[in-house]
Amino acid sequence: MTEHFDLVVVGAGPAGEKGAAQAAYFGKKVCLIERAPKPGGAAVNTGTLPANTLRESAALLSGLRRKGLYGVEFHVQPDLSVADFMQRERQVIEGAWHDIEENLARHQITAVQGDARFTSPQAVEVHRHGTAPRSIAGDIFLVAPGSRPWRPASVPFDGTTILDSTDVLTLPTIPARLIVIGGGTIGCTYASIFAALGAKVTVVTTKERLLAQLEHEVGDALRQEMTRRLGIQVHLGVDVTRIDAQGGLGYVTIADGTTLVAECVLHCAGREGATASLGLANAGVATSDRGFILVDEKFRTSTTHIYAAGDVMGHPGRASTSMEQARVAMCHAFGLRYKQEVSSVVPYGVWTIPEVASVGLTEAEARARGIDCEIGRADLAHNTRGRILGESTGFVKLVFNAEDQQLLGATIVGEGACEIIHVPSAVLAHGGTLDYFIQAVFSYPSLTEAFKYAAYDGLQRLQRRIGAAGGLDARD
């Protein structure tokens, strides 16, 4: 017997849960299928929340070391496991499970546990060990199974010495040495975490700077902090030619023939869509060569009643955007005018040590678009709260239009960056100018006060530009 629903959702991560709830809120009969015993996807169970729990312990240790409280020394016992630093993980994850399950129950969503596979464009079959297959049909489908670490065939992953970003959270002990391949978000995050926990860390990346997608100064500032504060060695613009595991050690050979050795090698070079077992070909859904689902501006796949949202589409692959994508997709699917597009103002946070965050355009992006822009900058070393926190290389940078002073983007490096980035995000979303920061009253001492001084710095740069050109109408 085939059960029928208005909406069938595959995957109970951030996108799946919020998409299901959005449709149910408007009275649709919804079924949510999840292969794992508990909801939440990688964000709750294997990625974001566990990694952030570990990061908080590491950041605390890093801060205690840096601030040197009255000569007290702090060190990590060498036999401690990753789990020892995640005492709050179970509480946090169980809290998330409770919230999700309560949300599903409140919206009267039917939750089904098992592996879903499309048998046609209109139906999936759900398999669960020890039970008969269950056929479920739907008018609309939302496919949101998330992504997983990409494992190139040339890398001999074994889960103990050669690891991906899921394996690393199950390490039995903190390795004495760790080689991280990749200088992006995941690579830099785990590099700083494990260095703060006492490992000797080396980062190898083919890029010319860390976090290459962000402002140029970000990579330089982060590398300086990772090197000075955490003792990390960073190799930029370097190709890896070979990775081996032998005798409990990992060996990484780089282009000049040098071989690096460590107890663990963490390979962080991208992700792939978790779609291999879904039978998408049976539904006529097209994917990329890495299994990411291809969609249009309304999040429709090549089969128009099947939608996709979240990490399974690839970039940006963030829980925050995944939720909004799913909500918007369901509004389009059912003709609801509640939400028609995802906001173009999306803050981007990286929980490295120190944190990095950005929103809007970088200076380089603004200039590439032909915008006559200017910047304003404030160093956290001159911010009272920054001094209290021990920040020495952090900064706030504002990018704005030189003609009307409209904010174009912002970048922050320093502890608290992922929180305070929402201040310029709000200004940007409402088309605000530097005047907001100039006129606003910020708490003292606070990191947010740096926005005011970055705005003042921007106005001074404009004034110097005008003065040098000899008039108000001058341009670069």
Question: What can you see in these coordinates?
Answer:
The protein is α/β, with parallel strands linked by helices and 476 residues long. The chain has three domains: 2-46 and 87-149 and 272-333, FAD/NAD(P)-binding domain (3-Layer(bba) Sandwich), CATH 3.50.50.60; 162-269, FAD/NAD(P)-binding domain; 354-469, FAD/NAD-linked reductase, C-terminal dimerisation domain (Enolase-like, domain 1, 2-Layer Sandwich). The protein has helices at 14-25, 41-45, 48-67, 89-106, 185-196, 216-228, 280-283, 319-333, 363-368, 384-389, 417-420, 422-429, 434-439, 449-469, and strands at 2-10, 30-34, 110-113, 115-120, 123-127, 134-143, 147-149, 162-163, 177-181, 200-204, 233-235, 240-246, 249-254, 259-262, 264-267, 271-273, 306-308, 348-350, 356-360, 373-379, 395-401, 407-413. The strands form five sheets. Strands 1, 2, 3, 4, 5, 6 and 17 form a seven-stranded mixed beta sheet that branches. Helix 1 packs parallel to helix 8 (319-333) and helix 3 (48-67) crosses helix 5. The termini are far apart.
- The total beta strand count reads 22
> What is the annotated CATH architecture of the largest domain?
3-Layer(bba) Sandwich
Beta-strand level of the residues, as a percent range?
15-25%
Give the helix level as a range of percent.
25-40%
Largest sheet: 7 strands, mixed
CATH C-level name of the largest domain:
Alpha Beta
Continuous helix count: 14
Gyration radius, to the nearest Å?
Answer: 24 Å
CATH T-level topology of the largest domain: FAD/NAD(P)-binding domain
- Fourth-tier CATH superfamily name of the largest domain: FAD/NAD(P)-binding domain
The mean pLDDT is 90
Estimate nothing, just give the exact number of structural domains: 3
Model regions low in confidence, pLDDT < 50 over at least 5 residues: none
